[in-house]
Amino acid sequence: MSTTLPRPLRSMSMCVHLLRVSGYMVPQQNTTAKKAPTLKDSQFHNNNIPQGIKALQQDQEKGIITHDDAHMIDEYLVKRKAENDLSRGRVTKILWTLLSWRRFVPPFRKNTMIDLYKSIDAVKTGTQKGTGQ
């Protein structure tokens, strides 16, 4: 059953999709034969959702992201987690990726496809293009 997402969520899905296909969100391949991390190793993994939410609020207070951006990110994450049964770590990764990517694009709702394509290049070159408000 296919449902049509509201325009802001379609835009957010497109952002994540473009980041993924551009290579920005490529999972790192483990090339050495090491043991998989355990819960005891969790201090090395940033799976702290409250820390991510705090960063979201701080970025909003500093004007790095708009209130609307924060609301869209929150709405997108809740929907993706519910539909895909995402782990805490995956939700945190998407949150941090969207927060850091926002430095390279205008406010999410104002993005056009050209803005998204330009932002891929900006992410690769490290050129910040986004503005807070």
Number of helices: 5
Main sheet?
Answer: none
Mean pLDDT: 75
Strand fraction equals: under 5%
Question: Total strand count, please?
Answer: 0
Structural class, from secondary structure content?
Answer: mainly alpha
Describe the protein in words:
With 133 residues, the protein is mostly helical. The protein has one domain (7-22, 45-125). The chain is built from 5 helices and no strands. It has helices at residues 7-21, 49-62, 67-84, 88-101, 113-125. Helix 1 (7-21) packs across helix 3 (67-84) and helix 3 (67-84) runs antiparallel to helix 4 (88-101). The radius of gyration is 16 Å and the shape is globular. The model has no long low-confidence stretch (mean pLDDT 75).
List the helices and strands and how they pair.
Layout: H1 7-21, H2 49-62, H3 67-84, H4 88-101, H5 113-125
Helix pairs in contact: 1-3, 2-4, 3-4
Write a brief caption for the model.
The protein is mainly α and 133 residues long. It has helices at 7-21, 49-62, 67-84, 88-101, 113-125.
Supply database-style keywords:
5 helices; 133 residues; globular; 0% strand; mainly alpha
